[in-house]
Amino acid sequence: MNLNISINKKKNEFDEYYKNLLSNYLSKDKLSKAMIYGSMNGGKRIRPYLVSIFSKIAHVEKKYYMRLSAAIESIHSYSLIHDDLPSMDNDDFRRGKLSTHKKFDEATAILAGDALHDLAFEILSDKKTCPKDGIRVLLIKHLSKSLGSKGLAGGQSLDLIYENNKINISKILHMYELKTAVLFSYCCYAPFILANKSDYQIRFASEYGKLFGLIFQITDDILDVEEDFKSLGKTPGKDKKQGKSTLLSIIDKNKLKKFCISEIEIFRTKYQNLLKKYSILEKLIYLNINKLN
Amino acid sequence: MNLNISINKKKNEFDEYYKNLLSNYLSKDKLSKAMIYGSMNGGKRIRPYLVSIFSKIAHVEKKYYMRLSAAIESIHSYSLIHDDLPSMDNDDFRRGKLSTHKKFDEATAILAGDALHDLAFEILSDKKTCPKDGIRVLLIKHLSKSLGSKGLAGGQSLDLIYENNKINISKILHMYELKTAVLFSYCCYAPFILANKSDYQIRFASEYGKLFGLIFQITDDILDVEEDFKSLGKTPGKDKKQGKSTLLSIIDKNKLKKFCISEIEIFRTKYQNLLKKYSILEKLIYLNINKLN
């Protein structure tokens, strides 16, 4: 099956599952409505797709990996809601719709993000996600580390600090790793933790996810410049306007594409045995770079 | 020992422990500085005090319960940082010092809160908090439930929705339970979970904490009216100015005091056997009400 068709099919399936799960966990109050608005917002669900691919490879049952995906997507939604706030990236739109603080209000958006943040841990800590206590607590440990001051929040902070500053490539790469790649990485290795895979396999999945995330971020930066509101779903050209430090601000597009392809080659050489076994992953790693013309 | 002396001694001990723990987990970057600023801010550490009392009753080792306290205080700090934001309760001061968003900036304050939120789960998920996986994951499950849309964040949301509205007593009590009492409750029963106590004992501790939290909130509302900036450490008289729905806005102070004392009496009757055994708890439940003249 064509990769995009397969992603879209999985997206529809996840959306239905996630909507149900949210209605089980939430109420009908304003906060719950804002949480649902901010998380059921037409996202591509690329993270749940990665979870499903790695879960299939590792033979993780669907009833477990769908909950893992729901936890990750709750985290992703929380981070987008907070990221769009006026004092952060100040975007009134997200995926073509009003962002949560514009649809509701700032206070509700902050709290909706906070409560989605909790929901992820509530989902993971439940036996329904995995009957083994030791595995659930390990999933939680890795997730919390990926999100805190040395993960997602740390990366968002650097992103703001680096605005309108001359920042070198290695610092930008580090910022990309924290703000984008660690959560992608988690999507790939968490199913391997669920399946009790070896440390080597987990490291492979983790590095795959980091590479996927890096290319995702670089592609996102390029699309921010090239696409219009309709295809982007949010205000285009914002990185330049806000003086964001992106790789694209110091390296031209063609060189960036070459950089991504060379990073893929390095990875392929390092893990050729596993990539031969899991051939879908070879195709999938080109997903983002192929979006560029 | 006098209760206030004992609380203050524990506060100093916790502050030193927590400062060390934070420096182990954090870096020297701006976000880490904001996290430390927002959490090492001269708080009374009444939650860690409750944890220590219930831990002593349950014979939980200090090396475990201090980490539980650190997780809870990270959550409490995150909630205060977000609560002080301009779009929330908009307070420039906290405990006599600039609030985190005034000392740093709004974006940094939002992210510092988010990262402290994660830190709590990172601390709890570590084997150092308890060697048993099943207990750590249970602590995490209860905490995440206490914080989300049906806990702390839900209560904060109701607090904002109820501003400048006529709200009845039972709705205000429900809001107090969510925004204040559930976390106090957790401080009391989490040590009992660590010690693998019976369901009955855990229910006792949970109800004790809820009652403590309710009286804490009522006292806080009264002090907001009666105290000045110096003793309060934050802007006084704000509840009225912001049209907050408090019990004090519909019931006078003396009746509220009587209500608290009658709630204590009901609790004492229900759990007289356990209160006889744990006599410190009988004294402690009057802590907040005794602050009122």
End-to-end Cα distance of chain A? 22 Å
- Note the quaternary state here: homodimer
Could you spell the SSE succession of chain A in H and E letters? HHHHEEHHHHHHHHHHH
Structure classification of chain A = mainly alpha
Q: Biggest protein-protein interface?
A: A-B, 50 and 50 residues
Largest sheet of chain A: 2 strands, antiparallel
Point out poorly predicted stretches of chain A: none
Number of helices of chain A: 15
Overall residue-averaged pLDDT value of chain A: 95
- Global geometry of chain A: globular
The third-level CATH topology of chain A is Farnesyl Diphosphate Synthase
Tally the structural domains of chain A. Answer: 1
Q: Percent helix among the residues of chain A?
A: over 70%
Residue fraction in strands of chain A: under 5%
**DSSP strand tally of chain A:** 2
Q: CATH H-level name of chain A... which superfamily? A: Farnesyl Diphosphate Synthase
